[in-house]
Specification:
Strand content: under 5%
Radius of gyration: 18 Å
Shape: elongated
Order of helices and strands: HHH
């Protein structure tokens, strides 16, 4: 198995996993009313998704240039992990926005 592809796969999994952890912490902070902390954590989560995506993109670009890439099950797992976590981060971001809008409406009614 190609060591380069294994290293890239592990890089993708590492950054994607960190994105999930940060996004989960962001949701917890949001629900605890710590809006600024939640936003910072969400930004960090999205940066980790971007890092993972860039690692994957390098491999795709290498292959497009004609470099033979031996894809392994670990790389496929890394791509699945990235796709799933990118979706989770997106959903959490939308949930945080929804929470803030609902809070605004509730606060407007209760004044």
């Amino acid at each position: 198995m190609d060591e380069k592809i294994i290293n890239v796969a592990m890089e993708i999994i590492l950054h994607a996993g960190e994105a999930r952890n940060l996004a989960t912490k962001a949701m917890i902070a949001e629900m605890d009313g710590e809006k600024d902390k939640a936003q910072e954590l969400l930004v960090s989560a999205k940066e980790n998704v971007k890092k993972a995506h860039l690692s994957q993109t390098k491999v795709i670009q290498d292959e497009a240039r004609g470099d033979k890439i031996e894809i392994c099950l670990l790389f496929i797992h890394a791509q699945d992990t990235l796709m799933t976590i990118a979706s989770e981060v997106n959903v959490m971001e939308q949930m945080m926005k929804m929470n803030r809008k609902l809070e605004e409406k509730i606060n407007g009614i209760c004044k």
